[in-house]
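Forwarding the complex inputs:
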Amino acid sequence: MKEHRSGPVRSAAAREAILEATARQFHREGYDRLTIEGIAKEAGVGKQTIYRWWPSRGALIADCLAEGRLFPLSFDVPHTADIVADVEVWLDTVLAILNAPQGNELLRSLVAAAAEDAAVGDHLGASLGVDRSLTQRVQAGVNAGELPADTPTEQLGQVLIGTIVLRTLGRMTDHAEPMRQLIRFLLTPRP
Amino acid sequence: MKEHRSGPVRSAAAREAILEATARQFHREGYDRLTIEGIAKEAGVGKQTIYRWWPSRGALIADCLAEGRLFPLSFDVPHTADIVADVEVWLDTVLAILNAPQGNELLRSLVAAAAEDAAVGDHLGASLGVDRSLTQRVQAGVNAGELPADTPTEQLGQVLIGTIVLRTLGRMTDHAEPMRQLIRFLLTPRP
Amino acid sequence: MKEHRSGPVRSAAAREAILEATARQFHREGYDRLTIEGIAKEAGVGKQTIYRWWPSRGALIADCLAEGRLFPLSFDVPHTADIVADVEVWLDTVLAILNAPQGNELLRSLVAAAAEDAAVGDHLGASLGVDRSLTQRVQAGVNAGELPADTPTEQLGQVLIGTIVLRTLGRMTDHAEPMRQLIRFLLTPRP
Amino acid sequence: MKEHRSGPVRSAAAREAILEATARQFHREGYDRLTIEGIAKEAGVGKQTIYRWWPSRGALIADCLAEGRLFPLSFDVPHTADIVADVEVWLDTVLAILNAPQGNELLRSLVAAAAEDAAVGDHLGASLGVDRSLTQRVQAGVNAGELPADTPTEQLGQVLIGTIVLRTLGRMTDHAEPMRQLIRFLLTPRP
DNA sequence: TCTTAACCGAGACGGTACGTCGCGTCTTCTG
DNA sequence: CAGAAGACGCGACGTACCGTCTCGGTTAAGA
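Prediction (whole assembly, six chains):
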C-alpha cells in the first residue's frame, strides 16, 4: 500500500465518490432534481472538483451510464433457434427495469438527460444492450436465413427501445403484451 | 343547474398572450431555458396569473401542443391505393419539422417536456397526428385486406414516432432513408 | 343646491366588521404583518369596501385608536391633593398595557403605525389620555399653586409618553420604578 | 485555540458597498421603501450576499447606525459652567438633523426601524450621543453640585430624545422653543 | 312602481418584493 | 500544491400583498 505525497492521488477516490453519489441521487431524485451542489455534498467533494472533470450534469450521467452504474443488469441476448424467444428474453430484462419501483421515472429521467445532453443520447440505446447484443443477434438471424434479407437490422433496436420510450413518456404501463406482439410481428416471416 | 361564482372572470386576452409567448419562447430558447418569468414579461402579464391557471411549465406546453401552437402543420394522411406512399406523406410532414432550423432541438425540447410532465407526454404522439390520422389509415388498410390481419395497428404509430424520437435523442440526422426503409418493411406484405 | 345621490348608503355592519377585524389582527400579528387582504377575509368583506372608505392601513388603525378599540381602558386621572400620586395612577394604567402579554409589541406596533401614518401619530398621545386627562390635571396643579408657574404643562405628557416609547423601542422592561422616579423629579417642588 | 474554517473569507468590499447603499437608500426613500433588492442592485451585489450576513433590513440599519453612516455629525456636549447652555448645544445638533430636508422623515424612518428591529432600538438613543456625551455631562453636573443629587441622570437623555420622537411622530415642527423650555425646566434648580 | 346608481362580496389582474435555491467562478486555507 | 470548503454575482423560483378593475347581486332613493 503506497502512500504518495503529491500529485492527484486523491483523484481516483474523488471520481469514484462523485459518480457513486451521482448514480444514487439520480435514482433517488430523478434527473431534474439532480444538482451539482447536492452531489458535491454527498460525495464529500468540492464543487470545483466536479467542474474540473465534467462539463455538465449530463456528462456525469453519461459516465454513470457508460460504466453501468445506472442499470446493474446485463442485456445479453441468447442465441437459440427461436429468434423471437431470444429477443423476448432481452425484452424481459428491459421491462424488469421499468417494473422495478421508480422504474418508469428512471427511464423518463434518462430521456430528459438525453434530451439535454448529447453524450447521454449517444449512450442511451447502447447502454440497453442494443448495439452490442440485440442488433448482433438480429443480424445473425438474417445471415442464417431466419429473417428476410431486407430486414432493417440497424433500425430494429431503435424501434423497440423507441417504442418503449414513447410509451413511457405517455405514462403507459404494462408494456409486456404489446411489445411481445410487436416483436412477433417484426420477426415472424409472413407468407 | 350551473355552478355560479360572482366576481371577475378569467381573462381571455391574458390566456392568449401567455400561450403565445410560451410557444414563441419555446421555439426560440428550447424547453430548459423556458422560464415563467420570461413568459410573464413577454406576455405583459403578472407571474401570478400564470400560476393561477397552470400548475407548471409543462402544463403550458401541453396546452400549446393541444392547440397546435407548436407545430403549425397538418398531419393528415392521404388515402390512396398505396399505403406505403400514404404513410410516407405523413413521414415527410414530420421530417419537415426536424429539417427546419432548430427542428431537432425542438423535438428534443418536446421530449424533455414530456419526460417532466405527464400532460405533455399524453399529447406528444397525438399532436403529431398519430391517433387522428396515421392509425386510422393503417386500420383502414387492415380492414381492406391491404395489410395482414395481425398487424398491430395501435403500435405502428408509436413505432414510427418512437424511432424518430430515439434517433433524435442520439443526435442522428438524415432520418428520411432509414425511416422509409422501415416503413416499407413494416407495411409491405412479404411472401 | 343639494348634491343628491341614489343607492344604498354606507354599510354600518361592514364598517364594524372591518374595524373589529383590524383591531383583532393588530393585536394578534402586529402592525407590519397587518394586511388589507387579511382584514378583508377575516371581516368577510371585499377589499374594495375597505379601499372605498379608508386610504391606507394607517387610517384603519387611526380609527381603531380613536374609538378605543386598541386599548380597552380608561385613562382618567384622579384629582386628589397629591398630584404625584394622581399621575402615578395614570402611569399604572399605561404600564398595565405594557405588562399585558404582547404589551410591548403592541406599543411598538403602534409606534410603527405612527411613523408611517400621520393620522395615527396625531392620536398616539391623545389616545393614551394625555390631552384629555393628564395635561388637565397638571394644569390644575399649576393653577392651584401645587406646581411652579413655569411648569411646561403641555410638554409633561409628551415627556412621560415619549420616555416610555423610547424605553420600549430600546427593549427595556420594568419601567415602573424609573418612571416613578422621573415623575417625582418632575412634579416635586424643589427648594 | 482559534476556531478556523477553510474557504473564502467575507468580502470587505461587498460589506462596504452594501452598507453604503443602505444608508443612501434610507436617506433617499425612507425605511418602508427600503428594499433588499434595491440595495443589492445599487451595491452591485447578489441578494444572497446580504441575507448571508444580515438577518433583516433592520440589522442593516443597525449597522449603519452603529458606524455613524446615517448621521454624519458629532454629538459631543461641551462642558462649561452653564449646564443649560451645554445641553442646548447638543439640542441644536439634534435639531439640525430634523431641520435638514427630509429630516423629520428621517427620524420617523429610524423610529419605524427601531419598532421593527431590536438591534436598531438598542442603538437609537446611543447613536444620538445620549450615552456617550449627554448623560456624562449631566452626571458631571450632579457630581459638581450643579444639579440636585436626586436628578435621574439616566432618564434625562431618554426624556429629551423621547419627547422629540413623540413630537415628530405627531408631525409637530418647531421643536426648538418647547425643547429649550423643557431643558430649562429640567436643569434649573428651583427654590 | 320602476329605474338606476351606488353599495356589497368576491376575486382576477399587472406589479413589486420577498426569501430560497442552484448555477458556475473564484478564493482561501489545510493536509 | 491538489482539493474541501464555501463566498460571490447572478437569475429564476413560487408566494404574499399591493391597489385597481370587473363581475353579478342587492338595496334604497327619485322619477
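Residues 35-38, 47-48, 51 of chain A lie near DNA strand E (CB under 10 Å from a C1').
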